[in-house]
Design a protein that fits this description.
alpha/beta; six-stranded parallel beta sheet; two-stranded antiparallel ribbon
């Protein structure tokens, strides 16, 4: 079920022309997901969904920027955490230990806390790291019937993620990262590498997208996660395993993002524009997640993000157009369809993505601006070649044959696209 409501939001420019809100087609809702509520006030909708589950012990996980929207003074009955506490439904104090990228230590502590509290539902408020952590905590909670009181470990959670009957998750995103729309969950290990789990049962049960939660969001989050939607669409369209249905859906999502993202630059708090971009991003990630996840760019940028602690929006700003340019000779026809979706069929798609990313505030475009250069980048490219070459070649329309191929892709001057 897809529901669209009207969200309270911060002040916006009333003179900016906007499109009517766009809905997510029913057929885009993945198996295991009950509903997507787009533009609905999150407090009322969350309590309604918790009631439908019969939930009694709610574990709430949030990132630091979302905390102010859901937790207030003791007598504040307009905040989610306070309401749950007043009703005796809060399983444990609000958890905000999950950092960017879903760090291992924060995840394991949260899993132990939820387990000890006997939580029967997870509510996740914030970005992709929080949404993924919620999926993995649900997996750990599913081991409760085993009768063991072991501490959570990465391997233990990964094993538990194969269980089919997990507690429900209400995912309340504050950006366009879209982790909540997949059955994949990432962890950044203490070694600085990316790991995780994937199983159909990890799909969140309900999504509630309320643009009010994006009020005051930093540019690097708002526009960086919007650019990730472009990344997801590009990856789905050019993936060797994609079929025509996947490509059509990805291009539809991309066209929605492209129609609304430039307007958001002028009116970043507009609830309709944000809901539209969320809808386009949802359609794009569902296309990618249907039989062709991960895409080449998605994988490389996840590795880059984990290694150098760079937000994935800037990873896309630095790498998306460069990766497209690398395999353009083998994916030209598909990339021409991307150009059409981006509104300019006469310009090569890598150049259009480059130019779109260049307009987005807070998004980096060069390795040097995120502190990655020289020997550091050279060592990373060698690591890519030695550890991931075979996998890259299953995901890329054009094979990599040497570390020089990787270097040419990663360091190609943007002005040459």
């Amino acid at each position: 079920t897809i529901h669209r409501g009207h969200s309270s939001s911060s002040k916006r420019n009333p003179n900016t022309a906007i499109n009517m809100s766009i809905s997510i087609p029913t057929e885009q809702i993945p198996p295991g997901m009950k509903a997507v509520h787009l533009g609905s006030p999150f407090l009322a909708k969350t309590m309604e969904e918790l009631s439908s589950f019969g939930s009694k012990k709610v574990f709430v996980l949030a990132n630091s920027s979302s905390r102010k929207f859901i937790e207030g003074n003791d007598d504040d009955d307009t905040k989610l955490v306070n309401v749950l506490q007043s009703k005796g439904m809060l399983a444990a104090p609000l958890c905000s230990s999950i950092g960017m990228g879903g760090g291992e230590d924060g995840l394991l502590q949260a899993a132990d806390d939820a387990y000890a509290a006997g939580a029967d539902v997870i509510v996740t408020v914030g970005g992709g790291a929080v949404q993924d952590a919620g999926k993995l905590i649900r997996a750990w909670l599913s081991t409760k019937d085993d009768g063991d009181d072991n501490k959570a470990t990465v391997k233990g959670i990964q094993a538990a993620s194969k269980n089919e009957n997990l507690p429900p998750q209400i995912a309340i995103p504050n950006s366009f990262a879209m982790a909540e729309a997949t059955h994949v969950a990432g962890i950044t290990l203490n070694t600085g590498t990316k790991s995780g789990a994937a199983n159909k049962s990890l799909m969140p049960t309900v999504i509630i997208y309320d643009p009010a939660l994006s009020a005051g969001l930093p540019d690097w989050v708002r526009f960086g996660t919007a650019l990730r939607g472009v990344e997801h669409a590009v990856g789905a369209v050019t993936h060797p395993k994609a079929n025509e249905d996947i490509r059509t859906r990805a291009l539809h999502g991309l066209s929605i993002i492209n129609a609304n993202l430039p307007k958001l630059l002028a009116d970043p708090e507009c609830p309709t524009l944000q809901s539209n971009i969320y809808a386009g991003g949802f359609i794009a990630i569902r296309a990618l997640n249907t039989g062709c996840y991960p895409a080449l760019g998605h994988l490389i940028e996840n590795q880059y993000s984990a290694k150098f602690d760079v937000h994935q929006g800037s990873c896309s700003g630095i790498l998306c157009a460069r990766i497209m340019a690398y395999h353009y000779s083998e994916s030209k026809e598909l990339q021409q369809r991307i150009s059409v979706a981006l509104g300019d069929e006469s310009t090569p798609a890598p150049r259009l993505v480059r130019d779109l990313a260049a307009r987005l505030p807070g998004v980096s475009h060069e390795h040097s601006t995120v502190g990655v250069s020289g020997d550091t980048l050279t060592d990373f490219m060698q690591w890519m070649f030695e550890g991931s070459l075979a996998r890259y070649n299953t995901l890329s329309p054009k094979d990599f044959e040497s570390v020089e191929d990787i270097r040419d892709m990663m360091t190609k001057p943007l002005e040459d696209l």
